[in-house]
Design a protein that fits this description.
mainly beta, two-stranded antiparallel sheet, homodimer
Protein backbone atom coordinates (compact mmCIF):
# COMPACT_ATOMS: atom_id res chain seq x y z
CA UNK A 1 0.00 0.00 0.00
CA UNK A 2 1.24 3.52 -0.73
CA UNK A 3 -0.14 7.03 -0.54
CA UNK A 4 -1.50 9.08 2.33
CA UNK A 5 -2.98 6.13 4.24
CA UNK A 6 0.38 4.42 4.68
CA UNK A 7 1.77 3.94 8.18
CA UNK A 8 5.29 2.65 8.75
CA UNK A 9 5.40 -0.53 10.89
CA UNK A 10 7.59 -0.48 13.98
CA UNK A 11 10.98 -2.14 13.54
CA UNK A 12 10.99 -3.67 17.02
CA UNK A 13 8.95 -4.13 20.19
CA UNK A 14 11.00 -1.37 21.83
CA UNK A 15 10.21 1.01 18.99
CA UNK A 16 6.53 0.02 19.08
CA UNK A 17 6.27 0.71 22.80
CA UNK A 18 8.77 3.51 23.37
CA UNK A 19 9.18 5.09 19.95
CA UNK A 20 7.98 8.45 18.71
CA UNK A 21 6.46 7.23 15.43
CA UNK A 22 2.83 6.23 15.04
CA UNK A 23 2.94 2.61 13.87
CA UNK A 24 -0.56 1.16 14.25
CA UNK A 25 -0.79 -2.60 14.49
CA UNK A 26 -3.81 -3.37 12.34
CA UNK A 27 -5.33 -6.80 13.03
CA UNK A 28 -6.03 -9.59 10.53
CA UNK A 29 -9.00 -7.56 9.28
CA UNK A 30 -6.89 -4.42 8.92
CA UNK A 31 -8.43 -2.71 11.94
CA UNK A 32 -7.46 -1.06 15.21
CA UNK A 33 -9.88 -0.41 18.08
CA UNK A 34 -10.95 3.19 18.63
CA UNK A 35 -12.13 4.35 22.06
CA UNK A 36 -14.00 7.65 21.87
CA UNK A 37 -14.53 9.97 24.83
CA UNK A 38 -16.06 13.42 25.18
CA UNK A 39 -13.21 15.90 25.48
CA UNK A 40 -15.21 18.15 27.80
CA UNK A 41 -16.78 15.64 30.19
CA UNK A 42 -14.48 12.62 29.82
CA UNK A 43 -17.51 10.36 29.28
CA UNK A 44 -17.03 7.26 27.17
CA UNK A 45 -19.15 7.76 24.05
CA UNK A 46 -18.52 4.71 21.88
CA UNK A 47 -16.11 2.03 20.76
CA UNK A 48 -15.48 1.65 17.04
CA UNK A 49 -12.85 0.44 14.59
CA UNK A 50 -10.55 2.11 12.09
CA UNK A 51 -8.68 0.85 9.07
CA UNK A 52 -5.63 2.73 7.77
CA UNK A 53 -7.76 4.94 5.55
CA UNK A 54 -10.11 5.94 8.40
CA UNK A 55 -7.22 6.70 10.74
CA UNK A 56 -5.38 8.69 8.10
CA UNK A 57 -8.52 10.70 7.22
CA UNK A 58 -9.17 11.36 10.91
CA UNK A 59 -5.64 12.66 11.42
CA UNK A 60 -5.64 14.75 8.26
CA UNK A 61 -9.12 16.28 8.52
CA UNK A 62 -9.61 16.49 12.31
CA UNK A 63 -13.03 14.86 11.93
CA UNK A 64 -13.49 11.28 13.14
CA UNK A 65 -13.78 8.58 10.50
CA UNK A 66 -14.25 4.90 11.26
CA UNK A 67 -14.63 1.64 9.40
CA UNK A 68 -18.08 0.12 9.67
CA UNK A 69 -17.68 -3.61 10.14
CA UNK A 70 -21.39 -4.23 9.49
CA UNK A 71 -21.39 -2.27 6.23
CA UNK A 72 -17.81 -3.09 5.30
CA UNK A 73 -17.04 0.50 4.35
CA UNK A 74 -15.56 3.79 5.45
CA UNK A 75 -17.84 5.66 7.85
CA UNK A 76 -17.64 9.37 8.46
CA UNK A 77 -19.32 9.51 11.86
CA UNK A 78 -22.31 11.88 11.86
CA UNK A 79 -22.46 12.31 8.10
CA UNK A 80 -26.12 11.26 8.18
CA UNK A 81 -27.15 12.07 11.78
CA UNK A 82 -25.23 15.31 12.15
CA UNK A 83 -23.35 14.01 15.21
CA UNK A 84 -19.96 14.88 13.71
CA UNK A 85 -16.94 14.45 15.97
CA UNK A 86 -14.20 17.07 15.97
CA UNK A 87 -10.98 15.50 17.22
CA UNK A 88 -9.21 17.34 20.05
CA UNK A 89 -6.62 14.72 20.94
CA UNK A 90 -5.52 11.28 19.75
CA UNK A 91 -3.58 8.81 21.86
CA UNK A 92 -2.23 5.36 21.15
CA UNK A 93 -1.64 2.50 23.56
CA UNK A 94 1.56 0.61 24.36
CA UNK A 95 1.32 -1.97 21.58
CA UNK A 96 -0.43 0.40 19.17
CA UNK A 97 -3.49 -1.74 18.44
CA UNK A 98 -5.88 0.77 20.04
CA UNK A 99 -6.33 4.51 19.70
CA UNK A 100 -8.12 6.92 22.03
CA UNK A 101 -9.94 9.88 20.52
CA UNK A 102 -11.05 12.81 22.63
CA UNK A 103 -13.74 14.59 20.64
CA UNK A 104 -16.26 17.42 20.66
CA UNK A 105 -19.63 16.28 19.34
CA UNK A 106 -21.82 18.51 17.17
CA UNK A 107 -25.16 16.87 18.06
CA UNK A 108 -24.64 14.88 21.26
CA UNK A 109 -28.14 13.36 21.46
CA UNK A 110 -27.44 11.45 18.24
CA UNK A 111 -24.03 10.04 19.14
CA UNK A 112 -25.64 6.63 19.64
CA UNK A 113 -27.92 5.44 16.82
CA UNK A 114 -30.51 4.60 19.49
CA UNK A 115 -30.90 8.32 20.26
CA UNK A 116 -28.61 8.78 23.25
CA UNK A 117 -25.49 10.80 24.07
CA UNK A 118 -23.42 7.65 24.64
CA UNK A 119 -23.65 4.02 23.52
CA UNK A 120 -23.04 2.96 27.14
CA UNK A 121 -26.52 3.79 28.53
CA UNK A 122 -26.94 0.58 30.51
CA UNK A 123 -25.03 -0.62 33.53
CA UNK A 124 -24.84 -4.14 34.85
CA UNK A 125 -26.68 -4.68 38.13
CA UNK A 126 -23.71 -5.84 40.19
CA UNK A 127 -25.87 -6.16 43.30
CA UNK A 128 -27.78 -8.94 41.54
CA UNK A 129 -26.43 -11.94 39.65
CA UNK A 130 -24.57 -9.81 37.10
CA UNK A 131 -26.91 -10.74 34.29
CA UNK A 132 -29.35 -7.85 34.42
CA UNK A 133 -28.99 -4.33 33.04
CA UNK A 134 -30.22 -1.01 34.40
CA UNK A 135 -30.91 1.78 31.90
CA UNK A 136 -29.27 5.05 32.90
CA UNK A 137 -30.27 7.25 29.95
CA UNK A 138 -33.61 7.13 28.16
CA UNK A 139 -33.63 7.55 24.40
CA UNK A 140 -34.29 11.08 23.21
CA UNK A 141 -35.75 10.01 19.88
CA UNK A 142 -37.43 6.89 18.58
CA UNK B 1 -21.90 -24.31 26.66
CA UNK B 2 -23.48 -24.53 30.10
CA UNK B 3 -22.54 -23.56 33.63
CA UNK B 4 -21.74 -20.22 35.23
CA UNK B 5 -20.07 -18.70 32.16
CA UNK B 6 -23.23 -18.98 30.06
CA UNK B 7 -24.88 -15.82 28.77
CA UNK B 8 -28.27 -15.91 27.05
CA UNK B 9 -28.19 -14.42 23.54
CA UNK B 10 -30.67 -11.65 22.78
CA UNK B 11 -33.77 -12.78 20.88
CA UNK B 12 -33.94 -9.66 18.73
CA UNK B 13 -32.19 -6.40 17.88
CA UNK B 14 -34.71 -4.56 20.05
CA UNK B 15 -33.94 -6.81 23.01
CA UNK B 16 -30.19 -6.45 22.37
CA UNK B 17 -30.38 -2.65 22.37
CA UNK B 18 -33.25 -1.91 24.75
CA UNK B 19 -33.50 -5.02 26.89
CA UNK B 20 -32.61 -5.48 30.54
CA UNK B 21 -30.64 -8.70 30.13
CA UNK B 22 -26.88 -8.82 29.61
CA UNK B 23 -26.44 -10.63 26.27
CA UNK B 24 -22.85 -10.10 25.14
CA UNK B 25 -22.19 -10.52 21.44
CA UNK B 26 -18.90 -12.38 21.39
CA UNK B 27 -17.05 -12.17 18.07
CA UNK B 28 -15.76 -15.02 15.89
CA UNK B 29 -12.95 -15.53 18.41
CA UNK B 30 -15.40 -15.55 21.33
CA UNK B 31 -14.36 -12.11 22.59
CA UNK B 32 -15.86 -8.74 23.47
CA UNK B 33 -13.82 -5.53 23.79
CA UNK B 34 -13.27 -4.21 27.32
CA UNK B 35 -12.57 -0.51 27.91
CA UNK B 36 -11.10 0.11 31.35
CA UNK B 37 -11.15 3.49 33.09
CA UNK B 38 -10.08 4.63 36.55
CA UNK B 39 -13.23 5.04 38.63
CA UNK B 40 -11.74 7.95 40.59
CA UNK B 41 -10.13 10.02 37.82
CA UNK B 42 -12.00 8.85 34.73
CA UNK B 43 -8.70 8.25 32.91
CA UNK B 44 -8.59 5.58 30.24
CA UNK B 45 -6.24 2.89 31.54
CA UNK B 46 -6.29 0.14 28.93
CA UNK B 47 -8.23 -1.72 26.27
CA UNK B 48 -8.43 -5.49 26.56
CA UNK B 49 -10.64 -8.42 25.60
CA UNK B 50 -12.88 -10.84 27.47
CA UNK B 51 -14.27 -14.23 26.64
CA UNK B 52 -17.37 -15.53 28.41
CA UNK B 53 -15.31 -17.04 31.23
CA UNK B 54 -13.39 -13.80 31.88
CA UNK B 55 -16.58 -11.73 31.88
CA UNK B 56 -18.37 -14.17 34.16
CA UNK B 57 -15.44 -14.28 36.61
CA UNK B 58 -15.23 -10.48 36.59
CA UNK B 59 -18.93 -10.18 37.41
CA UNK B 60 -18.87 -12.89 40.06
CA UNK B 61 -15.64 -11.93 41.87
CA UNK B 62 -15.56 -8.14 41.39
CA UNK B 63 -11.94 -8.40 40.20
CA UNK B 64 -11.18 -7.81 36.53
CA UNK B 65 -10.31 -10.85 34.41
CA UNK B 66 -9.48 -10.70 30.72
CA UNK B 67 -8.53 -13.07 27.94
CA UNK B 68 -4.96 -12.66 26.75
CA UNK B 69 -4.95 -12.92 22.96
CA UNK B 70 -1.14 -13.23 22.86
CA UNK B 71 -1.05 -16.05 25.41
CA UNK B 72 -4.40 -17.53 24.43
CA UNK B 73 -5.50 -17.90 28.03
CA UNK B 74 -7.48 -16.41 30.90
CA UNK B 75 -5.68 -13.45 32.48
CA UNK B 76 -6.38 -12.23 35.99
CA UNK B 77 -5.07 -8.68 35.62
CA UNK B 78 -2.41 -7.89 38.23
CA UNK B 79 -1.95 -11.46 39.41
CA UNK B 80 1.79 -11.13 38.73
CA UNK B 81 2.37 -7.36 38.92
CA UNK B 82 0.03 -6.64 41.82
CA UNK B 83 -1.98 -4.12 39.78
CA UNK B 84 -5.28 -5.84 40.57
CA UNK B 85 -8.43 -4.07 39.42
CA UNK B 86 -11.47 -3.91 41.70
CA UNK B 87 -14.57 -3.36 39.61
CA UNK B 88 -16.84 -0.49 40.68
CA UNK B 89 -19.16 -0.40 37.69
CA UNK B 90 -19.70 -2.32 34.46
CA UNK B 91 -21.54 -0.92 31.44
CA UNK B 92 -22.38 -2.41 28.07
CA UNK B 93 -22.85 -0.65 24.74
CA UNK B 94 -25.87 -0.60 22.44
CA UNK B 95 -25.04 -3.75 20.46
CA UNK B 96 -23.36 -5.46 23.42
CA UNK B 97 -20.01 -6.19 21.80
CA UNK B 98 -18.12 -3.89 24.17
CA UNK B 99 -18.09 -3.48 27.93
CA UNK B 100 -16.84 -0.57 30.00
CA UNK B 101 -15.26 -1.29 33.38
CA UNK B 102 -14.71 1.44 35.94
CA UNK B 103 -12.08 0.13 38.34
CA UNK B 104 -9.94 0.96 41.35
CA UNK B 105 -6.33 -0.12 40.82
CA UNK B 106 -4.23 -1.56 43.64
CA UNK B 107 -0.81 -0.59 42.20
CA UNK B 108 -1.39 2.11 39.59
CA UNK B 109 2.23 2.43 38.41
CA UNK B 110 2.08 -1.12 37.10
CA UNK B 111 -1.19 -0.91 35.21
CA UNK B 112 0.75 -0.84 31.94
CA UNK B 113 3.42 -3.53 31.54
CA UNK B 114 5.81 -0.76 30.47
CA UNK B 115 5.67 0.71 34.00
CA UNK B 116 3.06 3.42 33.63
CA UNK B 117 -0.34 4.20 35.14
CA UNK B 118 -2.07 3.96 31.74
CA UNK B 119 -1.30 2.23 28.44
CA UNK B 120 -2.13 5.51 26.65
CA UNK B 121 1.07 7.43 27.53
CA UNK B 122 1.67 8.83 24.05
CA UNK B 123 -0.38 11.32 22.11
CA UNK B 124 -0.28 11.98 18.40
CA UNK B 125 1.30 15.29 17.43
CA UNK B 126 -1.72 16.73 15.61
CA UNK B 127 0.14 19.97 14.90
CA UNK B 128 2.55 17.98 12.72
CA UNK B 129 1.77 15.43 10.02
CA UNK B 130 -0.08 13.12 12.39
CA UNK B 131 2.63 10.47 12.27
CA UNK B 132 4.69 11.42 15.31
CA UNK B 133 4.03 10.67 18.98
CA UNK B 134 4.70 12.73 22.09
CA UNK B 135 5.30 10.87 25.35
CA UNK B 136 3.21 12.26 28.20
CA UNK B 137 4.21 9.88 31.01
CA UNK B 138 7.70 8.50 31.58
CA UNK B 139 8.05 4.92 32.72
CA UNK B 140 8.41 4.52 36.46
CA UNK B 141 10.30 1.25 36.23
CA UNK B 142 12.48 -0.37 33.58
Amino acid sequence: MSGPAEFAPAASKAELEEGTRLSPRFDANGLVTAVVTDDATGDLLMVAHMNAEALDLTLRTGTAHYFSRSRGSLWKKGETSGALQTVREVRVDCDQDAVWLKVAVAKPEDTCHTGRTSCFYRKVDLAGDGRMLIETEARASS
